[in-house]
Write a structure and sequence with these properties.
single chain, 535 residues, alpha/beta, 8-stranded parallel sheet, 6-stranded mixed sheet, 18 helices, 38% helix
């Protein structure tokens, strides 16, 4: 895109319109009218859209076409319309084909399934009217206890995560949609969740390059369009600021050393890691000075009220005031703006949205890649279908209360993985029945199948304390125990007495169905394994 055309567009904008173009904002509800003022008056740059904004493809198309009309009437550039369609997290869940998620994709020794699945996501999200997928997660599961990444990662081996990250970018581009690698420089070796706090990763630059940064480099080499920063402190690179606010990390590491020339967007500036430590305006100014191209205020609209709009306007006006007072050089705004406008003219203007897709074919792809992820991580049995099966859910009912996040982000899964597994098992095995801890008496004539599951939830946890206690106790009391993990395999580390452990590496419905079929010998187990810490 010619610099003259970009400069010509920008020349007619006021400072308010320039600053507004550098923001990606969320809004509650399903009406485009909620964003009208931000588009018409502030020249908004993008929207973060969630299940709260649209639960179905019909709602998504209606919303996005209404946004298109607002843009056209006001002679605005396309909005960057980003969604967390990354597998373990998703939008339009219930209708969209999320697939099993990254960890399940990473089980495969080949990256073909990853590329296919991400093309599916790209095609479907364009059909809904979105133009950007905020994925893939390039984080490496170096800390199995990380509360927020888990199945959102392709695994714990940097080389495999790198290969699958690059494949995901290629798949998204094959689906003609914008790709965004996250959460730079890596959220997989933290003990905390940036929705709540600033995690600290005390690694040298050499350690980061060998592990956490490698998948991001692979994504950059594959041509990723955007990179999203994390609010994580890396004191051996920058003692004072988390990555989102760090010139050393964004300008030296990402731009100069890694050669990324695309759009750098922040993770939500409303997350606890930022708002608990910085004022909104101070954080925005520091982010722009550090090298952020677009600031995102996304999913943290807890109250779904007008107060959220007030926070957005306050941050935008804070940046305007900083420029007018001389605290922020206007050249910083102009440099970011030139990059954003050139990107939109090159990638978003020619993009074809609302094109038809084959949802039936996409579901077949998702089922196949889910099947290729189900693995006997420990033990393994071939005669389950020939004996009675007693099915027990280790997760108590109260753990499911937060599975559908009211903010619209996260798994957005109405039915638990156990629910799907139970339905398939009881249908396909005539000599099976569900039991509870209270009704668990005589099951020595068959197998006791205990199911565990987990979901990465933003700013909260899927409670597993009772489930782990249940599995630990049953593994000591029953020799005929089989644990079916509809989740990552890392909880096996606390089950030394479990002999047979079948893992789906996912809590998505297609993975639960695949796990039931592998257990019954109807399909073979997977041919690879993504994790290295579990035996």
């Amino acid at each position: 895109m010619s610099q003259e055309k970009v400069a010509g567009l920008i020349a007619g904008w006021s400072l308010k319109e320039k600053v507004g173009q550098l923001f990606i904002l969320a809004f509650p509800g399903k009406s485009a009218a909620t964003a009208e003022r931000m588009i018409t008056e502030y020249n908004l740059g993008g929207c973060y859209l969630s299940q709260d904004n649209a639960e179905t493809f019909e709602e998504a198309r209606s919303l996005n076409k209404a946004l298109d009309e607002l843009l056209e009437r006001n002679h605005r550039l396309p909005l960057l319309l980003g969604v967390d369609q990354e597998g373990a997290w998703g939008v339009l869940v219930g209708e969209s084909t999320t697939g099993p998620g990254n960890l399940a994709l990473g089980v495969q020794n080949s990256t073909e399934g990853t590329e296919l699945m991400y093309k599916v996501c790209g095609d479907e999200m364009r059909n809904a009217g979105f133009n950007c997928i905020l994925g893939p997660c390039c984080d490496v599961n170096l800390n199995p206890a990380s509360p927020i990444i888990d199945t959102r990662s392709f695994g714990d081996q940097p080389d495999k995560v790198s290969d699958h990250s690059a494949a995901a970018v290629k798949g998204l581009h094959a689906g003609n949609i914008v790709a965004c690698a996250k959460h730079f420089p890596g959220h997989g070796d933290t003990h905390g969740d940036t929705h709540r706090e600033i995690p600290r990763v005390d690694k040298s630059y050499d350690e980061l390059k060998a592990n956490d940064l490698a998948p991001f480099q692979a994504a950059i080499d594959a041509g990723v369009d955007l990179i999203m920063t994390s609010h994580i402190l890396y004191p051996q690179i920058d003692r004072e600021y988390p990555a989102t606010l760090s010139p050393a990390i964004l300008q030296q590491v990402l731009r100069q050393d890694m050669g990324f020339d695309g759009i750098i967007i922040s993770d939500s500036m409303n997350m606890g890691a930022i708002q608990n430590h910085y004022s909104p305006v101070d954080a925005a100014v520091k982010a722009m000075k550090a090298g952020i191209t677009m600031i995102m205020l996304s999913e943290e609209h807890y109250d779904h009220s007008d107060a959220y709009l007030d926070k957005q306007l306050a941050m935008i006006h804070g940046l305007i005031d900083a420029v007018e007072s001389g605290d922020l050089d206007e050249s910083v705004i102009d440099s970011a703006l030139e990059r954003v406008v050139a990107f939109k003219l090159d990638k978003l203007v020619p993009q074809a949205r609302y094109a038809e897709v084959s949802f039936a074919q996409n579901r077949l792809i998702a089922s196949e890649v889910a099947e290729n992820a189900v693995t006997w991580v420990r033990g393994g049995l071939e005669d389950v279908a020939e004996k009675p099966v007693y099915l027990l859910n280790a997760t108590p009912a109260e753990s499911y209360h937060n599975l559908m996040n009211p903010r619209g982000i996260g798994p957005n899964q109405a039915e638990s993985a156990f629910g799907t597994f139970r339905e398939v098992l009881l249908r396909e095995h005539s000599n099976s029945r569900e039991v509870t801890l209270e009704t668990l008496n005589h099951c020595d004539d068959g197998y006791l199948v205990v199911v565990t599951e987990n979901y990465p939830l933003p700013g909260e946890d899927f409670d597993q304390v009772k489930a782990k206690e249940t599995v630990q106790q049953l593994s000591r009391d029953f020799d005929n125990l089989i644990v079916v993990a509809l989740r990552s395999p890392y909880d096996l580390l606390v089950y030394p007495d479990v002999t047979h452990y079948l893992c789906a590496h996912s809590s998505r419905p297609e993975s639960a169905e695949a796990a039931a079929n592998v257990l019954l010998g109807k399909i073979p187990e997977a041919y690879g394994i993504a994790v290295s810490r579990v035996k």
